[in-house]
Amino acid sequence: MAKKSVASLQTGSKRLTKAIKMVKSPKTGAYTFVESIMPPEAVSDFLKKK
């Protein structure tokens, strides 16, 4: 499962997007959230990675 936040951040002339992914721990089975700030083009690759 993946969850994406549609929050855009402006820093100077660069446009950045904050992406949030829900990851299931193989040990405990609990879900955790992984956050990352990146260019909008890299969001789909971030969400596809396990």
TrEMBL record:
Any Pfam family matching the protein: DUF4295
Name listed for the protein in its UniProt record: DUF4295 domain-containing protein
Species, as recorded: Aquimarina algiphila
